[in-house]
Amino acid sequence: MWFYYALLSALFAAFTAIFAKMGVSNINSNLATGIRTVIILILVWSIVFINGEGKNIGSLSKVNIIFLVLSGIATGLSWMFYFKALQIGKISQVAAVDKLSVVLAIILSVLFFKETLTIKTTIGAVLIISGTILFALK
């Protein structure tokens, strides 16, 4: 099931790039990110409350909160830089470079979670890096 969610994530990420490029024309990229963030906030909290998942908020540990806050900060910074890059760059190039996050996530997963780095994963990462270089040189 994870694969289908990941495919949907990729699909909506592609739409994100297209819609964001249209949305950042002639406005400040930070303002555009702020507007997008408010929409996401409303959408996600609506889903949480509709599904009755808000009642679990009291069960969060300090560690959960610390890492969710750090993740939120990283996400916010990622979005701000992504929107700025989309504003001044080509979608195909920005999206390709953004996908280097896959390679970085692989490296960090090995370092922090001791995940196994297989030949298949290494080849995939090298192909992503190669593809990114090809797109960036466009």
Characterise the protein shown here.
- By secondary structure, the chain is mostly helical.
- Helices cover 80% and strands 0% of the residues.
- It has 6 helices and no strands.
- The chain has helices at residues 2-23, 29-50, 62-88, 91-98, 100-113, 119-136.
- Helix 4 (91-98) runs antiparallel to helix 6.
- It is globular and about 50 Å long.
- The mean pLDDT is 94.
Shape type: globular
The arrangement of helices and strands along the chain is HHHHHH
Percent helix: over 70%
The low-confidence runs, each spanning 5 or more residues with pLDDT under 50, are none
Characteristics:
138 residues, mainly alpha, 80% helix
Summarize the helices and strands and which ones pair or pack.
Elements: H1 2-23, H2 29-50, H3 62-88, H4 91-98, H5 100-113, H6 119-136
Give a brief description.
The chain has 138 residues and is mainly alpha-helical. It has helices spanning 2-23, 29-50, 62-88, 91-98, 100-113, 119-136.
